[in-house]
Amino acid sequence: MTYEYKCDSCGTVFEINATVAEKARGLRPECPICASPEATQVYSSMALFSRSRSGGGTPPCCGPGSGSGRC
Questions:
Q1: What is the CB neighbour count within 10 angstroms for residue 22?
Q2: pTM
Q3: Domains of the chain, first to last
Q4: Which residues have a Cβ under 8 Å from the Cβ of 20 and sit 6 or more positions away?
Q5: Nearest-angstrom CA–CA distance, 6 and 70
Q6: Confidence of residue 9 (pLDDT cuts 50, 70, 90)
Q7: Are strands 39-42 and 13-17 parallel, antiparallel or unpaired?
């Protein structure tokens, strides 16, 4: 899976690929810019929509019957 992190030291946002098992063991990614091991996981809006209960993965404003069909 791909996880997104933000470096607590320099503010760089970066992605890492790791297994669910690696994440469960306490993954501590290193910033690719300043090499700091202090980073906080961030959650993008796309990740939140893809995990919605509707299963469609599409924001409600973009679905059928939403008028213009544009967000």
A1: 13
A2: 0.60
A3: 2-51 (2.20.28)
A4: 1
A5: 30
A6: very high
A7: unpaired
Q: What is the spatial distance between Cα 71 and Cα 67, in angstroms, rounded to a whole number?
A: 10
> Could you give the CA distance from residue 28 to residue 34 in angstroms, rounded to a whole number?
14
Distances (CA, A) of 17 to 2, 7, 14, 29, 64: 4, 16, 10, 10, 34
Instruction: Provide the token pair at 11.
Output: 């503010």
pLDDT digits (tens, 9 = 90+) for 15-59: 999 999 999 999 899 999 999 999 999 986 655 555 445 444 444
What is the rounded CA–CA span in Å between residue 42 and residue 32?
A: 16
Two tokens at 14?
A: 């970066």
